[in-house]
Structures are given as structure tokens and as C-alpha cells.
Amino acid sequence: MPPRTVKFRAATVAAVLALGTILLAASPQSGAAAEPAPVTDYCQGQCDDILPPGENGNATLVDILGNKAFGTHPAHSDDQLDRYNGLVAGHAGLTDRKLTDFFNDASFGVPKGQVESVTSPRDDVTITRDKASGVPHIKGTTRYGTEFGAGFAAGQDRLWLMDLFRHIGRGELTSFAGGALANQGLEQQFWPQAPYTEADLEAQVEYIRTHEGARGEQAMADAQAYVDGINAYREKSKKGRYFPGEYVLTGKMDAITNIGEIQPFRLTDLISIASVVGGQFGGGGGGEVQAALSLLSAQQKYGVAEGTKVWESFRQREDPEAVLTIHDGTSFPYAGKPATARGIALPDAGSVTAEPLIHDRTGSAGTDRKAPVKAPAALRKAQGIYDDGVVPEGSLPGSGSGAQKRGMSNALLVSGKHTAGGNPIAVFGPQTGYFAPQLMMLQEIQGPGISARGVSFAGVGMYIQMGRGQDYAWSATSAGQDITDTYAIDLCEPDGSAPTKDSTHYLYRGTCTAMETLERTNSWKPTVADSTAKGSYRMQVRRTNYGIVTHRATVGGKPVAYTSLRTTYRHEADSIIGFQMLNDPAYVKDAASFQRAASNIDYAFNWFYADSRTAAYYNSGMNPVRAAGVDPALPVKSERAYEWKGYDPAANTAAYTPFAEHPHSSGQDYYVSWNNKQAKGYAAAGFGLGAVHRADLLDDRVAKLVEEGGVTRASLTRAMAQAAVTDLRGEQLLPELLKVIRSRPVTDPELNAVVQQLESWRAAGSQRRESSPGSHAYTYADAVRIMDAWWPKLVEAEFRPGLGDGLYEALTANLATDESPAAGHGPSGAHSGSAFQYGWWGFVDKDLRRVLGQPVKGPLAKAFCGNGDLAGCRDALLSSLKQAAAEPAAEVYPGDDNCKAGEQWCSDSIVHRPLGGIAQKSVHWQNRPTYQQVVEFPAHR
Prior knowledge:
Elements: H1 3-23, E1 47-50, H2 61-70, H3 81-90, E2 104-105, E3 115-122, E4 125-130, E5 136-140, H4 143-169, H5 173-177, H6 181-190, H7 198-211, H8 213-240, H9 246-249, H10 267-281, H11 288-302, H12 304-315, E6 331-334, E7 353-354, E8 358-363, E9 410-414, E10 425-429, E11 435-436, E12 440-447, E13 450-457, E14 466-468, E15 472-478, E16 484-492, E17 505-508, E18 511-514, E19 516-524, E20 535-544, E21 547-555, E22 558-566, H13 576-582, H14 591-598, E23 605-611, E24 615-620, E25 636-637, E26 664-666, E27 670-673, E28 680-682, H15 695-708, H16 713-724, H17 728-741, H18 749-763, H19 781-814, H20 841-851, H21 870-886, H22 889-892, H23 904-908, E29 913-914, E30 932-935
Parallel strand pairs: 5-12, 6-28, 11-29, 16-25
Antiparallel strand pairs: 1-2, 1-30, 3-4, 4-5, 7-21, 8-20, 9-10, 9-27, 10-30, 12-13, 13-14, 14-15, 15-23, 16-17, 16-22, 17-18, 19-20, 20-21, 21-22, 23-24, 24-26
Helix pairs in contact: 1-8, 4-8, 4-10, 7-8, 7-10, 11-12, 11-19, 13-14, 15-16, 17-18, 17-20, 18-19, 19-21
């Protein structure tokens, strides 16, 4: 049993016993129970939320064909989009009364005059939908009925999406939805991160049921009821012929005969979906092989000692200038650099090769070759809707060629001491990309032991994952702390002969042990939806007791395999316990109980809380207790002395850091988070948490509001909205760039005019914002174009000469230089909203301040711009600026499927990528949560 479970039981045994008595009596056979006591809504109309484009994510074949032919939309599929988009222009004059112009009223229940429909899939549950947004308000009189209703509502709103994601998690997307190149890439990216057999998935269900006490048993009972509800809707929609039309277009169902089947959902499907969601948004660490390669490159250029010093200054594990969520000086040491490292396993130069994933390609595998079918006339408007994939490349956060794992979401909270009403205020939400329908769905769930409204990821919506309870609200941002390590395992041959890099056995605690081979064989053929020609391939990964093999190399001349070991592997859904607690009004009563609930969530998230009295924070995650001297930033030898403390590979359990060692806080004057560093001592798991971070856009604004006092829901929302349209480079770095350039007069008139354009843009706030609503042209369009063209050029001009080609390229492989909103810039993928998380902002800032003679805490090991000479630095910046100014818009903003070359606003714009057959219009760029709450509770139980 993992220590986290032991800790939980010891701390809450009385509550668990009570829970078992009250809730476990509920079962599928339970009859209708007495009507539960009315729920009091302590938010009193001061809770709002938004989730564009709309709640309805299911479309029949007729709906899809209507959208393609006439641009029509099913009811409630797009009615939150204009309000979300309207905040760009509307935030300047925002007041508390005007918030519902841009957000939904998130009060509990539905007023009698606002009821659109009532469905009762069982006699112990009703699903009431409101006229305003079509959100399902699920109310049950038994626990089973409540969760059955949640599953039924999920089927109504997200059946096709859930089907897609269970196949993505299982590595079966191409066989299910077609062989488009993007589909191939997506399953090749996700499945190797969480490869499982069916027995593995079943074991995870059983682990929760048997290792988490009464709550674990209840969680699996709830999950089964939820699956039963999905399947009830699945069967009902097939018989009624109103199932999602994508099943017809992909060849799963016949529109005329109704022949075909939507495969039943199983509990193990929920584990697969959880592996995609949790791994994408709640992972952290990893990448040690690439880090080792850049360290080797630095050592090769500068020598071991000096090269290590240079590399560490770029790695910025503990940058003293980084913006912090806990800013009161409290320290939470974790995953730092050891004084004397032991067991580091750096590869020999030139020896690293990636483990091959794809084998036995046939037909169109690895290509985008099309062979369109002859579609019936009635279906031709929808032909080829998935030719670019059901999830186009780069749409999911961190997916696509060259993409980096990205944490997302933001949070702004202010203590009641600094608000006009005397109660804490929160503006927060997850930033999960933009899709039609969204990956999440809004719902309210009221039943025995559950009382909440908010969002859940489709397919795992037994509980609200982020939202509000009766007198409290909570949300999360991706934390990304290091819960993934890389081991170098010595290869061997069972007959005792000399191993090679291709050997499939390894030494485990002194025994030559066979790697386990996991495979997926997928095949596809063209359909109406996806014209990709017939093809197939086999995916193969090797699994060891130290995780999944990612690379082969030699270390000291001996062959090794590098493996990736994540603490949450084989525990993809264990976090269900924490979510169950967050939904339970009998458990969460204050900030302290919230933090305890959040501590039962195993993925790496920053959790934020607000009630009428307290704002609070907790960082969750299965943080392993590492052996003394192990450096988490680099590969380590797979010897027992360097394993996680208490490590047992059978169920991938270990000792984990206790509650008190996780960053947590209550009552701080304010909190901000935008995937930045959590607290002093909590070491960065990767590159990029330095002196300039996008969280500075929030921190500066919220700190000013707190200093002024009298913060309101509107003013805090306004601060978020201003940051959402601000260019980080323009606000934080352009002043330093201009200081260097203006250190002497710019004598070239044309170049001086360019500098003046940048100065005007900076003086006006460095925003990427329309000149007027609907103009589709930025007020300072030329300045924005110049910055977009200049940034990658100036970074290269500043750093490549000093670092040299090899080290510069190795470091840019660790951290991309840019991530502007424009479709062609950085690792975020086109039209995804999220921007300015990853980039060389902090490196540029520290280097320029050094050149300018300003104080720098935690400086880079060397000066780079102009080799530290101000005049030389100025020349490099001006030369790159001149090149950038001459670059035409058509080159800065290359065209794509949504925009013509040179269309700046369009290149930035948010596109809700269609995961089904319904398309949505593009909207103005905002660097903002996808789902967002604005809350202030004036009262408490």
C-alpha cells in the first residue's frame, strides 16, 4: 500500500467509516429515496462561469449536413462563444453588474421560468436543462441514480468525443476514426506515454477499489453507475436514430438501415481517458535525455567544470528572480540540485538513438495519401471532414511535431482584506485548448454526498473536477513539478554473451530480465469522413521495471537503454478520491479540508480555493522520495541505491513526500498562477522558469490592485483580461531592448522610424488588440509584425555567436525561443490561444540587464549579447531589427487552412478545432482559460 493511502486513512478514518455507512448502501437496485434536503446556494448570485463555444457537443447527421451546407448550428452548440469573445472589447468598462454579459450565471438550480427540458432516465434522477445555455442540472435521490444521470447527460452532450478519447488512450485512434496523418501522429504520441494491456487497466480499477477504503469502493460504484448511464443513452440514441452523425460518416453506422453498433463503454475506458487527460495536463518532469545532451554540448565547448556552470545557469532550477505563487518567503525544498550528485548516467557523445515505435508499415502509413470513396450525394457536403485528422496536428496542448509538454491555466485570487466586499475573490480556470465541442462539459450534480457545479472532462465526469460547491469554489493550473525520472538500465543477454544496444534484456537488481513487449496493430481504410488510403502499422514499446524504454545509448562504452518512469503510471485514475472529496459538502468545509482533499489528487496540479473567509492554495502530485544524491534533472543509473525510496515495480508504488512538504498556503494577500514556479525551494522541473514569465503579466497587475485596495470581481476580471491580450515580450522585454538601442542615437532614418513604432506600441500597453470590434486589424499592426519577426532573430543574434552552433541548438531543443500567438511561432500549435509560456524571455532579460550594468540575481554564467559589450550588443540588435522590419507580413504569417498568408489577426485568432462535424467561427486571440469562473462568496455555512 503506498504511503499516501496510509496517510489518508490515518488522518480521516472517522470520516471514511461514516461515508461507508451513509453511501455504500446505495446500489443499482436501490429504489427512489426520500427527497434530499434543499441545497442552499451561499454564493447569492455572485458566481459566474463560461465555457465556449457551447454546452451541446452532439450533432446528428442532419445537424452536420446543415452546418456544412448552410452554416447552421444545433441549439446550445455556440451560444457561449460571443460572450467569451466579447470580453476583449468589453473588459475596459466592466462592472460587477455587467459580468453576466460575458459569463453565465453559475447559481445552483434552474428558476422555474428558465427550464428548457426535463429528462428522467430513471425514477431516482432528473436532468433539467436551462434555456440560457442548455447546461444539465442533475439531481438524484440515490447515489446510483445521481451518477447514472451524470453518465446519461455526458452521453447526450459528448458521446462522440468520449468515444474518440477512449480510443486515443488505448492507442487505437486510426482503426477507429481513420488513418489521417494527424491521427497517426496523435496515437503515436499518447499511447507510448501510457501503454497498457486490458489486464493492466482492470488492475487499476481493482487497485482503487481495494486500496482506498470505503471511498475507493464508492468511487468505483459511482464510476460504474456513470458508465451505465452512458450506455443507456448510447442504446437509446441508436434506437431513436439521433446518435451523433460522425458514426455514419466514419462508417460505423448505416444512416438508412441503422445497421452498426456503437461499442459499449466499460470501466476500463475511463482509465484510458484519464491517462490522456491526466498525462497531458497533470504530468511533470522527464526530458532528462535531452537535458543530458545539452549538458554534454556545454561541457564539450567550455570544459566539464565551466560547461556545467554555463548549463546550470540556463537550467535555472532555482532562479531567485522567478515569479512565485507563494511569495511570502516560505520554502518547500524538493527536487533540487544535490551538493554531490551520485549515479548520473550521461551518454557517450553521439551514442543516443530514439527507441523505434512504428513497425511493419503498409499502404498509406506514414504518408497523407488519399483515396476518396464515392460518397452518396446526401453526404458529399461532409466528405473529407477528417482528412486532416479528428484532432488536427498541434491542436491538443503539447501535441504535434516539435511540441513541448505545456502546463496551462491561470488563477488570480485576492484575500478579503483587500476586496471591497471583505470576502476573497477568485478569477480562475483551466486553459485546455479550444475545440468544438470542448474537452470538458459544464454540469451541476446534486445528490447524496455530492453538491457541485462546474466542469468535468468528458468521459470521466462522475464528479465536478473544477467548479463550485455550496459555499466554496476551486480550480487548478498545471504544476509540472518533477514526478518523472529517467533511468539508464544496463543491457544484458540471457546466455551471458556480450549485449548490444539492441538487446531486449536488462539487469534488474542483478538479474538479467526480459523487457516486456506491448503492441498495438492498427489498420484503416477510406471513409466519407477520412479519405486516407488503406494502410496499417504496428506500434511497439518495451516496458521494464524502470518504466518505458525511450532511447538507447552507451555509457562509458557499455550499452544501456534509457527508460521513463512516472509516479502516476499504473495510477491513472487514483485521483478520483480527491475529486470525490471536493464534491462532498460534508468533507470540504474550509480551506484546511480543501487542502486535504486536494492532497489526494496524484497528478501535478496547483489547486486554488475561495470561500467567504479564506483564499488558499495546495500543490498536488505523487512526488517521489528520491535517494540521497540523485539529481532529478539528469538520467540516473538503475541501481537499487538510486531507486525511489520504497519502490515496488509491481504496482509502481514508492514513498511520496508528505502533505507538509508540498507548497501550500492560506490567507496570503493574493495568489497568481500561470504555470510558474510555485515557491522558494521547489525546483523547476524543466527549462524556462526564470526572471520573466507570463505569470508576471498577472502578478504585476494583481499586486497593484491589492496595493490600491477595494478589489471587486470586475476589477480582478479586468486584470486577467488585460493580461490576456498583452504581448509578454512587449511589456517585459521591449523596455530593455530599447534601452540598449537608444544608448546612442539611431542615425538611419528608416530604422529610427521602426524603433519609434515599437516605442509607441510599448507606451500604449503592448497589446495585440483590434482597432475596433470586428475590424480584424490590430491598432499597432506594424509594431506587432516587427516584434513577431524580430524576436527569433534577436535571440539568435544575441546568443548563437557566444554559445556556438552546437550548444545553441541543443539548448533550443530544451526550450524553444518563442511562443507568440501567431500560428507559425513556437511550440503551442496554431490558433490555440495559449501563448508566451515557453521562450527565452528570462535569458534575454538577464543578459541585457548585465550588458546595461544593472543588478542581476542569478545571472547567466557568461555575457552573450555583443560578448558583454554594450556597443556590440546594440549593433547585433539593430542588425536583426533591420532584417525583421524588412520581412513582409506574408512571410511572418504564412497561410494555413484558416488564414491567407499575411493575415495577422487571423494568424493569431482562436479556432475551435472541430472534433466532430460542427465547425465554429474564428474569434479574437485571448491568452485566457478555456473554462473560467468569477466568484465571491458573501456567506458560509
